[in-house]
Amino acid sequence: MKIIKKELRLAIRERLVLLLGAIILMLMGVGLISSYRNFQEQQVAITKEQEQKRTEWLSQGDKHPHIAAHYGTYIFKPKSGLSIFDSGLDAFTGTSIYLEAHYQHEFMFRPAQDKGTMVRFGELTMAMALQVLMPLLIIILAFKSITQERESGTLRLMAAQGIRISTIVWGKVLAYSAILLLILLPVLLVIFLGITILNPPGLLAFSPWRLVFLLLVYAMYLFLFIAFSVYISLYSKTSRNALLKLLVFWVLVTVLVPKTVANMGKASYSLPSMHVFKGNIQTDIDNGLDGKTPRSLRIARLKEEYLKTYNVDSLHQLPFNFDGIIMQAGEEHGNQVYDVHWQRLQSIFEEQNRLFAYSSFLDPFIAVQRLSMAFSGTDMYTAVHFEDEVEQYRRTLVKKMNNDMAQNSRYGEFFEYKAGASLWEAIKEFNYTMPTMFKVLHAYRWELAGLSAWLFFALALLGTSASKKRWNL
Questions:
Q1: Coil vs helix vs strand at 304
Q2: Alpha helices, DSSP H only, in 269-379?
Q3: Spatial distance between the Cα atoms of 19 and 280, rounded to a whole number of angstroms
Q4: CA separation for the pair 265, 354 (Å, rounded)
Q5: Are 423 and 65 in contact (CB under 8 A)?
Q6: Are 395 and 333 in contact (CB under 8 A)?
Q7: Which of 282, 322, 328, 319 is nearest to 304 (CA)?
Q8: Angle formed by the axes of helices 165-198 and 208-234, to 10°?
Q9: Neighbour tally for 423: CB within 10 Å
Q10: Exposed (0-12), middle (13-18) or buried (19+): which is 160, by Cβ within 10 Å?
């Protein structure tokens, strides 16, 4: 306890530490204000536009169901409250998507498009400050934790009094942990209380466990830097030597290794351009997945099947409008083709993500960065999950339009039949629910394992100080 009190007093007296801490807190505050303003603007716009598009869909008037399917509607991606803390990939995944028959459009209005190339270096958010800047503060605070005692001669005095080295090491570690807690606790409370109390309309509901795991992940990550800083200081001859080692470690962890892994993923698992991706889909829609079944052949087979099934000689004799059957068959064929190509694209994403996941065992920064986005609901897994849910909604909408056409109109008639408000109201408003915590934890199990491995490694290093027989006085 005396060691902890001493370190707290020294930290207060250390002007450089106080100055750096104040700068980091200021940057965190700027990031918080900026994130909240962006969040508020986007949330208001999304809520307003979603209500407007829903009103337009319900009030589109009487028209043919398939025309209504092409008239379509827009879906806007709701914001997660924790995106104020970590905006993640929200700037790159788009905010809205247009739904219509036959086509799977891409998401539009990506905020990153309006921010230039500087956005590639990352937005200034609370998460970025904790991941990059706070470890630097820890290094400045703790790099001379043991070396200073040795250089001033107090280490020799403590040895003469019979104080164990492990007691000093853990006293330093706990002291710096307490200092960080005093710095961060008020800020974190403001964020999380603001998210849970304000709760603006249209906000994505999230499990409280996301907050718990988010705090746990950052506690583990920052503890790693405290442990390594004290350990390096213990085994370094001078404070300057300790600082140099720790700064090299910080640069490797936060800059060089993540950039190298990203370049490896891009080179090893390259993604096709959007033009090529959509071109391949259209080719398979026109000619079939086997390249031998064009639309005319598929329609001929479908006609033969239905005439035989209902034992009639003409499509006019069928008890429904065969045009609606053709429309839905074409839609399902297009869906099948899209699923094949989308799965291929997802497999490339999975390979890239797997590379990053395994890299968590080499770099704790990669682990905490991905876990932070995952628990904040701003990661790629959540973005893909949302896109899949939207696609299922689009298919349900189009199928309902085509089925209504088949059941309530006659073959050969198109503009003569018109549906009304009752059909539009039958399409319920889209509501999105984030993946459960169990699914998120399973998707990021390797990142959790990697961060845990780093924690055990740090604890093991601290444990070796207890078995140190001789002090390097």
A1: helix
A2: 274-287, 295-310, 322-359, 364-376
A3: 57
A4: 9
A5: yes
A6: no
A7: 322
A8: 150
A9: 17
A10: exposed
> Which DSSP helix (H) or strand (E) runs through 76?
strand 73-76
Cα of 228 vs its chain's centroid, Å:
28
- The DSSP secondary-structure symbol of 435 reads P
- What is the pTM (predicted TM-score) of this model? 0.87
For 270, residues 6+ apart whose C-beta sits below 8 A from its C-beta are 348
Q: Is 75 exposed, middle or buried (0-12, 13-18, 19+ CB in 10 A)?
A: buried
∠ CA 94-100-106 to the nearest 5 degrees? 25
Question: Tokens 């379509």 identify what position?
Answer: 72
- Hey, what are 457's tokens? 């490694």
**Are the beta carbons of 371 and 219 closer than 8 angstroms?**
no
CA atoms of 433 and 437, how far apart (whole Å) = 12
Q: Which helix (H) or strand (E) holds 97?
A: strand 96-100
HSE-up of 57 (CA within 13 Å, CB side)? 24
Each residue's pLDDT expressed in tens, for the chain with a length of 473 residues? 666 676 666 666 666 667 777 777 787 777 777 777 777 778 788 888 888 999 999 998 899 898 999 888 999 888 887 888 888 888 788 788 999 988 888 876 555 555 544 444 557 788 888 899 889 888 988 888 888 877 777 777 776 676 777 778 888 888 888 888 877 877 777 766 666 665 555 566 667 788 889 989 999 999 999 999 999 988 888 889 999 999 999 999 999 999 999 999 888 888 888 888 889 999 999 998 888 889 889 999 999 999 999 998 888 888 889 989 999 999 999 999 999 999 998 999 899 999 999 999 999 999 999 999 999 989 999 999 999 999 999 999 999 999 999 998 888 777 788 888 999 999 999 988 889 899 999 999 999 999 999 999 999 988 887 555 445 55
The domain ranges of the chain are 2-466
Count of CB atoms within 10 A of residue 220's CB?
A: 19
Residues facing residue 63 across a β-bridge: 419
> Tokens for 42?
């986007």
Query: Residue 414 — φ and ψ, nearest 5°?
Result: -125, -65
Cβ burial of 234 (10 Å; 0-12, 13-18, 19+) is buried
- Residue 457 makes CB contacts below 8 A (sequence gap 6+) with none
Cα dihedral: 82, 86, 89, 92 (round 10): 100
* Residues whose CB is less than 8 angstroms from the CB of residue 291 and which lie 6 or more positions away in sequence, other chains included: 284
Measured CA to CA, the distance from residue 82 to residue 194 in angstroms comes to 10
